[in-house]
Specification:
The structure is a homodimer of 294-residue chains.
Chain A: H1 9-16, H2 23-43, H3 47-62, H4 70-77, H5 80-88, E1 126-135, E2 145-150, H6 162-165, E3 171-175, E4 181-187, E5 192-193, H7 199-206, E6 212-213, E7 216-222, E8 229-235, E9 254-255, E10 258-260, E11 263-264, E12 270-271, E13 275-284
Parallel strand pairs in A: 1-13, 8-9
Antiparallel strand pairs in A: 1-4, 2-3, 2-7, 5-6, 7-8, 10-13, 11-12
């Protein structure tokens, strides 16, 4: 086959990949070619615009290293991450809604005990987080693994300032107790702009968008026989709740971080300054392979 | 706006970018979001497949440096480069058809005189290239700039073996003479696989495709008042003419590289070995801004 023109090249490419051995690879490749060509046909890029596109993708790749994932930021800001999340996580009644993982998750967070303060060297408004993990129909789950991570009072994560603070902070892994409960102390997180000094920031500015996310605490919760829950709890009243740059906010995930006076805290400790209290109850969805056990 | 689901997230993203200041950026961004989301909705990627996609793009970016452009290879092998070429270069009667630039073009090729041998240290079957450059209606163009580049007998370009050969070769810039003609000596190029030790090679293998291009000589021809012509001339009879991995072959660009016995060559020189002769006449399309002069 030769002599490809605007009208016959898409079929030519589809024909060329028709021999893919794996049916899923064939399906994904064909869909990619059809939508990509339809996009190009619709916008009719000049040669210069095509060069800009190649350069944009190249710079996005060059921005990625072990501390920065610019392609995830691109997926997040174009709404693709939330779309993939929605496709994969229909949520039954009683189960907590999901949202994006975000770029600041770290695989091996420090193991902590319930009641520990995870703020490390960071200064800020004290916050106690109490919570429970249960099945969607309300049965407590003991021994569930609860990963938490959040930003500091200025909106920065530990991994963005490791040079200054020296170690991970505001990040830990807990296990629920016999009643399915966990609790810890830290500092209240703030709203923050996603890293916007790269190609994604350039795109947001060109699209007339701000780079901010409303304040939140990340949770990743795992228990044998249940789907892993990846979500946040957002601070009620934040001014970016309706314009989160990555489209991650759901009403059920917004919660009061209650401002409490000094005195006896929910964990029985006496504290000398005012603090914030977040209490949130999480419900896990049974894994498909665990259907028999339901 | 909050609570984005599979059904409402696309509109949410479109609403968010509706304020883009530049109408072209708005148009391209909107089309990108619609086609990208439609692709994701069609294939319904698992979280793992989404992660593979992020990793594939990241590795493609990391493969790019000043000697390798993996995103151009991706565009070429998905037929996007030829589609963009077709959109931008409708060809009037008498003008030469266009094809992809390819990843081996170098901005500052050495200036050579008509009749020079540009093969440098490379060994191979001698080849003389003679040609003309004229308007689409056949008027010779003197002083046109003719960039040429091609592979060696093993299918490698100079830039792929600079460490061994030390300098550019099989690559030069000529100017047409008073009759619009140019000619030079080199060695006959061979078919070659595009670089396939990266993500694009991984994709081709998964899609059941070979990475080969039929043998060709690249030409980029410029003359004031005319559209720059980017094209190849392909060697007639090559076994990859119907399966060029980048979809670049057009019948009008296939030409005999005539095998000639030793003796008097077309440039009057006497040669002692057999050689190949390519003669090709190029027609340039008048630039839109030059319409008055037509
Ligand atoms: Cu589409
Ligand atoms: Fe975050
Ligand atoms: Fe080539």
């Amino acid at each position: 086959m030769r002599n490809f023109s605007e009208t016959n090249i898409t079929d030519a490419v589809l024909e060329r990949i028709a021999g893919a051995g794996d049916p899923r690879i064939k399906q994904v490749s064909e869909a990619l070619v059809r939508h990509l060509h339809a996009f190009v046909r619709e916008i009719r890029p000049t040669q210069k615009e095509w060069e800009y596109g190649i350069d944009f993708l190249t710079r996005t790749g060059h921005m990625c290293d072990d501390k920065r994932q610019e392609f995830i930021l691109l997926s997040d800001t174009l709404g693709v991450s939330m779309l993939v999340d929605a496709i994969n996580h229909p949520v039954p009644d009683g189960a907590t809604e999901t949202t994006v993982l975000g770029p600041f998750f770290v695989q091996a967070a420090p193991e902590k005990q319930n009641g520990d303060d995870i703020s490390g060297p960071m200064q800020g408004d004290p916050m106690i987080v109490t919570g429970s993990v249960s099945t969607a129909d309300g049965k407590p789950l003991a021994g569930a693994v609860v990963d938490v991570w959040h930003s500091d009072n200025d909106g920065y994560y530990d991994v963005q300032q490791l040079d200054e603070i020296g170690d991970l902070a505001m990040r830990a892994r807990f296990h629920t107790d016999a009643n399915g409960r966990f609790h810890f102390w830290s500092i209240k997180p703030a709203a923050y702009p996603i890293p916007h000094d790269g190609p994604v920031g350039e795109m947001l500015e060109a699209q007339g968008r701000h780079p901010w996310r409303p304040a939140h605490v990340h949770f990743m919760i795992s228990a044998a026989g249940f789907e892993q829950l990846v979500t946040h709890v957002f601070v009620a009243g934040d001014k970016y709740l309706d314009s989160d740059v990555v489209f991650g906010v759901k009403d059920s995930l917004i919660h009061d971080f209650v401002h409490c006076p000094p005195g006896r805290a929910p964990d029985g400790r006496t504290v000398e300054s005012a603090y914030y209290h977040l209490n949130y109850d999480f419900g896990l969805k049974r894994a498909a392979s665990n259907a028999r056990a339901a």
